[in-house]
Give the backbone structure.
Amino acid sequence: MKNKHLPYLLILWILPSIVYFLTRQPSLYFIDAGTTVAAASSLGIPTPPGYPSYTMLAHLFTKLPFGDVLLRIQIFSILISLSTLTLVYFFINKLFAIVKPLNSPEGFVRLIATVSALFLSFSAIFWSQTLNAQAYIFTDLLLLTIVFLLISLKNPSKITKTALISGVLLAIAAGGSTVMVFMIVPILIVTAVFYWNQVGVVKGAMLSLAAIICLILIYSYLPIRAMQRPFLNWGNPQTVELFFAHVQGMGLSFNDPITGKVTGFTGSFNSFIKASGRYFYLLFVQFTWVALPFIGFGYYYLYKKNRHLFFSLLSIPVMNLIFGGLWLSGNQEAWFIISYIVFAIVMGVGMGFVTQLLSRFKVKVFDIGLVLALLSLSPLIWWYGKMNHSKSYVMSDYAENLYANLPKDAVLIGIYDTFQAATLDKRIVSKDRPDVFPVMTNMLYVLPWYREHLRHFAPDLVPTEIDSITTFNRVEEYNEMLNFYIEYLLKKERQVYVAYPVFSKSVLVGSNEGVFKPDPKKLKAIPAGLTSKIVLAEGSTYEPKEEEFNFKFKNIKEYKKPHFYIEKGYVSSYNDVISEYVESLIVYAEYLLEDPATGPLRSEASWSSSGRKEQENPTKSQTAEKMLMLASQIAGDSTESLNRLAIAYATQGKFTKTVELFEKLNKLFPKDINIQFNLAKAFFDSGQEQKAKEMFSKIGKDNSQIQQAVSSQLSMIESFNQNLKNYQPFENDQMNLKFYYPEDYAITFAGDNMIKITNNAKGKDELTMLIYSKKLADGQFLVDLSKNLPFVIDGISLGSQPTQMPGFQAKVKTYATGETSVLLFLLRHNDQAFAVRVFPGDSNKAEHFQNILQSIRVLK
């Protein structure tokens, strides 16, 4: 390095370094970051293709004598990015020497190179991935170094040396993000053809062999480490078959029509168009729009002056766009970084060309340089607030809260990246809970090597019977396997905890059946913080504790106002974490409110209460309300969380809150038909019938795919109104009650806030109803209504169950009284509750009492 470059390089190294360290996230990023950090920490084998080069080099940095493992790997990532900025700086200097876009002092050329590199350093994706633990910038640096060497080649006699160095760098790059190697294939092919006469067949074969040997040495890391059985041993690539399956990413490609998630090669034109739109959108916002004209001028000037350089520096973004459009990944935005690095290089040429044009109008070079230097700070100013994740602890909070209530030697069952990142951190990186045995259910079911891997560490915890169960012939098989496995663990006297996504996220592509549904005859699930404790259906008296839901957050503000992530996959993963907190709080609240005779209020039959004793503790309702309020605070703008919370409030008869949440969702996502449909239904349930009809009609008119469901709702409303055609209304302000009843029935007041409706008939033709009205206090729920009713029901209780009542949370209890029965309906709408006694329960006038019940509304 010559001293003339040093001042510029110091700026290029120091300023971004300060910014990076000020904004670095002290907690893990999402998707594969947890696996990558764990692999580097333990020399394990991460997700395909294994990233051996990156893993080994990152491992060296984990030996630094300061900071935690994540900080040490972030230092490695920052050094990689600073090296990339340095490459961009010298690349631009080299291009100026070749195409000479201006006749200014060399110092100005170095200024332009610095400015262009600064634009890159503070661009959104580059900045974000610099502070992440991923191999993308590492790979891009090596690939563009090869391009730099080939472009810098002046003497054909040095092609052999350059090719050898390039081959080694290419092999190391392939040990990073393998698929990115294809981005420079056109350049390699053109270079090989151009210099073929100087290289020849023999040298070409030897150079290729050297690169292949280097690649084999790098990838030999996988089988060598696999044989040593690290806990993170993805694919267990010990055999030739498993090795090639791992490097090819077997089993990681899928297209789920239910969730819309696609990973791997698509070959879809629509997917390509969407990915291309994302590519160009990110290009527009990366450097801020002020940089785009310089990129355009740069390509224009290269086309005019040197077609070889033009096509070389254009081929990389074109290949990147093609691969990024046809091969989808959760880290799609990071795939595009190599394009943005190239654009930063071309941007420098464009700045030189623009300077040349402005010089003709007597604009001083110093003034131009000053403006360019100031412009280079525009992405820093624009993105700093958004990229500042120095107070983000979402993933570390999640790991702590997930493990907070787990007893020693528990088995923890979960699915997908977030769960895996947390469990690997606890077992491998921080090593503070190596006693807990984590199991990924999707991998347990699908991957034989994973079952063998788990058996190596705990032979008695993974029975071989699972192998015979997993035939993949029926969609029910997954749930049967999981029920068998958990029952097996419980009989081994191991305590089993299951993360909430296992109950709701299907692991079967194209089917909703890939979720865990405990067999109520054998198992029951008890809320336990961020997990559900699974116990045997008979004999367990375990009850959840409120302290298990006192989640600890290092920065509660980030849950109310989430940090910005430009990567879609990270936003999705963040929302998944929020959803787990919200789900856990809702499930606990519902558990507190459930009737032991009927089970929980939630629609999914995942939570059994068999064997529970009714608790008369008056604080149960207050605790449930507290949990729901906390869930509402955490939910933020998460679609899944708000939707789940709205349904929970509807289930409890709090329809004002339901409407409020669905209206919020509708404002956030005004084109989501499902949200609009749920909002219309919430309007109807809240008593806003006309508003519901108008919205249903609008939805059905604009969207053919949901027309059938809309027609069904409108028909139900119309049918309901038709049934009441010959009925007369009753209203009472004190009872806050309105309903319709047949004209030949008599109504009398039977006490405070209670009326009697009867047809004065005898026997089975009799229908007598008592309706009692009560306002519920804050923190009271439907269960509180049934404790102090002003009427007595004789008979033997035959049980109770939830029932469907428009606009109400509703339950019905049945009592046997000799040859007949009595029905007791408990209804709730917001803070208004009604108890309705129906005698006889098997009246011949059942249609009348059903119509009366269906017509009950609150006045306000």
